[in-house]
Amino acid sequence: MSGSPAVRGRFAPSPTGPLHFGSLVAALASSCDARAAGGQWLVRIEDVDEPRSSTSAARSILAALVRYGLRWNGEVVRQSQRTRAYEAALARLAAAGLIYGCECTRRDMEAAPRNATGERVYPGTCRGLGLAAGALAQRVRVGDAIVSFTDRLQGRQAQDLADDVGDFIVRRADGLFAYQLAVVVDDAEQAVTSIVRGADLLASTARQIHLQRCLGVPTPEYLHVPVAIAGSGEKLSKQTDAPPLPADPVPTLLAAWHFLDQALPPTRPSSADAFVAYAVGAWSRSRLPPVRMLLAPRV
Question: Cα 182 from chain centroid?
Fold first, then answer.
């Protein structure tokens, strides 16, 4: 449509291990969704948690994406190089009176109630204490915000942040910035219009929208695809020792495409590039299974 902003999608892996099947599903879906709309697809390395991140894992992830035919637009952004941008965002929140220092420890939080997903809900212990920032964690006030949005696959979502999350951390006590703040700042600066990722991140979306509103930046569209789980019921992840992607990309790309319930090509593609060219043209959001978890195939 004339005058519409160009579609910009992104894939933002954490470099704590090699790319695995679950990551490939998210990368393939986000790439095809952006490319099918005639847009750009960006890659960002989310190494804001530097102690857990590895430069060798980042190199491995980027090499795997290329090997699997998933090429990105522009330069790769690395969160570890964007501290000043996060500091500026935190300063804006502080100037608006939206954050406060928190001295609660992990042990303190063990007594806090849990929400429906098992996450602890911060009870506001330090909210009125007027603690100086110093070396303390920083939390953003959620007030009575009820955040609602329509996910392009999962449908209408709503979250009462005070009841479901509580005031949440935007900078940790060790000085590292929290994922929630970093991802909002990065998506805004990169002009990301459409976020396609795993449904395990659906619960954190309301927090990100709250921060977008606090910082006065646009809210992208969201689409949360099913998460690949192992036979044990656990999400495939680096923490659960999900195996790295095989050297031969085509069978695994076909398995990921089938996992997303997309129409398989009539003949076996000759290469990863040939498969991706087919996939962009065949991508259909309406075919995606609207569930949050699916058993991963053996590949």
Answer: 11
